[in-house]
Amino acid sequence: MPKMKKIIFLLALPLALAGCSSAITNLTPSRLARNSDGTYHVEAAWRTTEQTIRPESRKPWVVVGFEKYEMSPELVVKDRWETFVPVPADQKLIHYRFQFDFSRNAISAAVEDSKMSPEFTLEIADKASGGK
Description:
The chain is mostly beta strands. It has one domain (21-125): Immunoglobulins (Immunoglobulin-like, Sandwich), CATH 2.60.40.10. It has one helix at residues 2-18, and strands at 22-26, 31-33, 39-48, 59-64, 67-70, 72-73, 80-86, 93-104, 111-116, 120-125. The model is unreliable at 9-18 (pLDDT under 50).
């Protein structure tokens, strides 16, 4: 009988672990044309099946170097956030990450937590001149 319990436990473990997943998806193109105001639209989606996360506590950011830019939820699509990130005129690349801060339910009280995406690169391409 103890052997049977081990087998059932080992079979159920992957199912239990598969139920808790979380993914941050970068929805920003890797290359954008330089514009006159020097700000660029950055967008991400965060999908999670983790039941302990308090959805109303999610606070997403774009992290560029030591600067953080708060993101706002998109009005039309659920679980998507956007913001504009400034890029100096003399800079052609920025490296950025998405950070999602949130509260998680715990036994005694809510616990603060955070998820960070891998690093992404945005290339700012100068507009091609019209003449030959």
